[in-house]
TrEMBL record:
Catalytic reaction equation(s): (S)-dihydroorotate + H2O = N-carbamoyl-L-aspartate + H(+)
Cofactor: how and how many bound: Binds 2 Zn(2+) ions per subunit.
E.C. no: 3.5.2.3
Chain sites annotated for binding substrate: N100, H314, F328, G329
Protein family: Belongs to the metallo-dependent hydrolases superfamily. DHOase family. Class I DHOase subfamily.
PANTHER family documented for this protein: ALLANTOINASE
Source organism (scientific name): Aerophototrophica crusticola
This protein's name: Dihydroorotase
């Protein structure tokens, strides 16, 4: 008999349709059967399991546009199993992972490995990007057609920028055949070799700087290539005010361009590096307060389409070393939702607009239209969360195998209570 569960007394939120109402949602097996304010107004029939949400929010499960999971090759940092547990704890029900593994995901067998490990883990849905170039070396395109047929959601060299303009032009042209986006890490390699944002703070600390212009120059070049090819282009983790302007102009021209940012770039600045705090060493680096405000403005006006976790796990040995030698990146699954909600609590974005950045929009960019929304007959991928509950981030208590969060001890508001994937509860707290 199909398992049926009614989530009652829930604040139903669906950015895709603008729904914001108190009501009930019914799941049957892996699907959403029905939902709305009037559902089971006279009581839930016998035989249906009841989860009383007690006024908490119920929304589509989060769709994470970009993350690293370590496996294969870097299992000391993270595995697909530990990453899936961490994602579930963060209310994320679908994750798209980068190909920066060892070996690189540049052939069909790499995609099949990720899919198999995700099936074995049976927690969140894991999708993968195919590498744009072989071994992400930036020299020779991969078999994009085969990777597309095998399920790649897009093509990217992940943390490696594609510097060769001719190669990227070809990739943008080819990818249109399969309707897949090309995702670029916009950083001119010769200019972006520093370890933090170029400027007064880097000079005072004696650290090499990576200027904002390294990101802007690459974006401006790439916009020309998009204009030339008509390809679909996605810019990852936008971090500078001028980058927002470049994307804004490209969209005004009607170019097929989308972009995202990550919580550090709207919640932190270069000041947070303090005295060589390596957990704040990110790529791109944390920028100025002016840049941070421009990122928030870009999110508010729709220039920046989505927010990704940029989950990048590193163990203690790779972070607790001198700043110049420390690895780039921070874990982000479990802090994604509360930091997105911070945009709402501070009045920068309405609640549904903030949630849109981590549900419907990333699902659409990835070509996964069934995800990121509440729909009758659609997958029962859900998150229940307390919008207002305050808590403090504790890196040591994160479910991720690595604990390198740049938000440790930060007070946040908004707690995940339950995560549901295909009708199965994959994470829960005692209060939901």
């Amino acid at each position: 008999m199909t398992n049926r569960t009614a989530y009652t007394n829930a604040r139903l939120l669906d950015p895709a349709t603008g729904l914001d109402a108190l009501g009930t949602l019914l799941t049957e097996g892996a699907k959403v059967a029905d939902f709305g304010p009037g559902l089971f107004a006279d009581g839930v029939p016998e035989g249906i399991q009841v989860v009383d949400c007690a006024g908490a929010c119920l929304a589509p499960g989060l769709v994470d546009l970009r993350a690293q999971v370590g496996e294969p090759g870097f299992e000391h940092n993270e595995t697909i199993a530990t990453a899936s547990r961490s994602a579930a704890a963060g209310g994320i029900t679908a994750v798209a992972v980068l190909p920066n593994t060892d070996p690189v995901i540049d052939d069909v067998s790499g995609l099949e490995f990720i899919a198999r490990r995700a099936r074995e883990t049976k927690l969140v849905k894991v999708f993968a990007y195919g590498a744009l170039t072989k071994e992400t070396a930036g020299k020779e395109l991969t078999e994009m057609g085969l990777l597309s047929e095998a399920g790649a959601v897009g093509f990217t060299d992940g943390t490696c920028a594609v510097a060769d303009a001719l190669l990227l032009r070809r990739a943008l042209s080819y990818a249109t055949v399969w309707g897949k986006p090309i995702m670029q890490h916009p950083a001119e390699p010769r200019l972006s070799g520093g370890v933090m944002n170029a400027g007064e703070i880097a000079s005072r600390l004696g650290l090499s700087g990576s200027p904002a212009m390294a990101e802007v120059i690459m974006l401006e070049r790439d916009m020309r290539l998009v204009e030339m090819t008509g390809g679909r282009y996605h810019a990852a983790h936008i971090s500078t005010a001028e980058s927002v302007e470049v994307i804004r102009r490209a969209k005004a021209k009607g170019l097929r361009v989308t972009c995202d940012t990550a919580p550090p770039y709207f919640a932190l600045t270069e000041q947070d590096v303090g005295e060589y705090r390596t957990f704040f060493k990110l790529d791109p680096p944390l920028r100025t307060e002016m840049d941070r405000r421009a990122i928030v403005e870009g999110l508010a006006d729709g220039t920046i389409d989505a927010i990704a976790s940029d989950h990048t796990p590193h163990d203690q040995d790779e972070k607790r070393v001198p700043f110049a030698q420390a690895a780039f990146g921070a874990v982000g699954f479990e802090t994604l939702l509360p930091l997105v909600l911070e945009l709402h609590h501070k009045g920068a974005l309405p609640l549904l607009a903030a949630l849109d950045k981590v549900t419907k929009v990333p699902a659409d960019i990835l070509g996964l239209p069934a995800l990121g929304r509440l729909a009758k007959g659609g997958p029962a991928d859900l998150v229940v969360f307390d919008l207002d509950r305050p808590w403090k981030v504790d890196g040591d208590r994160l479910a991720s195998k690595s604990k390198n969060t740049c938000f440790d001890k930060r007070p946040v508001q908004g707690m995940v209570l339950r995560t549901v994937v295909d009708g199965r509860t994959v994470h829960t707290r005692a209060s939901a």
